[in-house]
Amino acid sequence: MRIVGLTGGIASGKSTVSNLFKASGIPVVDADVVARNVLKKGSGGWKRVVAAFGEEILLPSREVDRPKLGQLVFSSDSKRQLLNKLMAPYISTGMFWEIIKQWAKGAKVIVVDIPLLFEVKMDKWTRPIVVVWVSQETQLKRLMERDGLSEEDARNRVMAQMSLDLKRSKADVVIDNNGSLDDLKQQFNNVLSEIRRPLTWNELLRSRQGAFSVLGSVILGVFVCKQLNIGS
Ligand SMILES: CC(C)(COP(=O)(O)OP(=O)(O)OC[C@H]1O[C@@H](n2cnc3c(N)ncnc32)[C@H](O)[C@@H]1O)[C@@H](O)C(=O)NCCC(=O)NCCS
Ligand SMILES: Nc1ncnc2c1ncn2[C@@H]1O[C@H](COP(=O)(O)OP(=O)(O)OP(=O)(O)O)[C@@H](O)[C@H]1O
């Protein structure tokens, strides 16, 4: 199985690119969705986060007040690191199971959309790595527009992540998303052809079909050896 890493910065356009992958029939495992499940009321992650940050981060429904928690963690490095530490094991386990589900369905190519791919060092598990890059000016503008944030809040969120220029330098493939949606789609089509190229031997062995072929060959090998022993 080929596990393509999709990353970028906040509001750089990862979800927009993810949607193009989904529309082309490529399954996407989204770390933000997994992280949202980790904070669902009553879950293990929710309990740990509420114990650490207090009941004041809860809404009257006892769900986490996400904008409030966001305000806290994006304006304090230590609080953000604490939240990351509490949630990381749940997010990695959740991602692992989502990838296994796709493997069991026989997916040959999947995309994992992980905003913090490099920060959490998951880049070593994914190839190729696609970085959706925008200039800081475009990033701030789109973030303020999409989430209705002040410039200060938007800057805090951007500064909480590794710089997009550094991420770009670590990419195998860069999508420059400063232009229009049509420009983005054109670049996406090139990326799609790149990731749909035939699997390498290693990727084939990691796919369900590859694993079954190896298992089948081993069983056949054992059977043939037994037959030969019996005959001798
Ligand atoms: C702080 C929370 C509650 C704010 O929720 P909110 O709904 O406002 O934002 P959402 O979850 O949609 O995230 C939006 C973007 O913020 C950025 N972001 C989220 N968490 C972090 C973080 N810990 N550090 C840096 N950037 C982050 C990502 O680019 C993400 O795509 C939420 O982001 C969260 O639970 N973060 C911790 C989990 C995490 O690390 N998620 C990233 C998955 S790798
Ligand atoms: N090429 C583009 N032209 C204009 N607007 C765009 C373009 N690409 C994305 N956008 C808009 O920019 C905003 C951010 O895009 P998107 O939500 O895909 O980013 P993201 O990287 O997934 O963000 P996050 O890290 O917060 O999850 C959205 O409002 C989206 O509609």
Q: What does this 3D model show about the protein?
A:
With 232 residues, the chain is α/β, with parallel strands linked by helices. It has 3 domains: 1-27 and 107-197, P-loop containing nucleotide triphosphate hydrolases (Rossmann fold, 3-Layer(aba) Sandwich), CATH 3.40.50.300; 35-103, no CATH class; 204-232. 58% of the residues lie in helices and 10% in strands. It has 11 helices and 5 strands, in the order βαβααααββαααβααα. The protein has helices at 14-23, 31-38, 44-53, 66-73, 77-104, 136-147, 151-159, 164-169, 181-195, 201-205, 208-231, and strands spanning 2-8, 28-30, 109-113, 129-133, 173-176. The protein has a 5-stranded parallel sheet with strand order 2-3-1-4-5, sandwiched between helices. Helix 2 packs across helix 5. The longest helix has 28 residues, at 77-104. The two termini are 41 Å apart. The relative contact order is 0.18. The model has no long low-confidence stretch (mean pLDDT 94). Bound molecules: dephospho coenzyme A and adenosine-5'-triphosphate. Adenosine-5'-triphosphate (ATP) is lined by residues 8, 10-16, 32, 115, 142, 146, 177, 180-181, 184.
- Please give the alpha-carbon distance between the first and last residues: 41 Å
* Unreliable residue stretches: none
Find the structural class using helix and strand composition: alpha/beta
How much strand? 5-15%
Biggest sheet architecture: 5 strands, parallel
CATH superfamily of the largest domain: P-loop containing nucleotide triphosphate hydrolases
What is the number of E strands? 5
Annotated CATH architecture of the largest domain: 3-Layer(aba) Sandwich
Strand order of the largest sheet: 2-3-1-4-5
Helix content: 55-70%
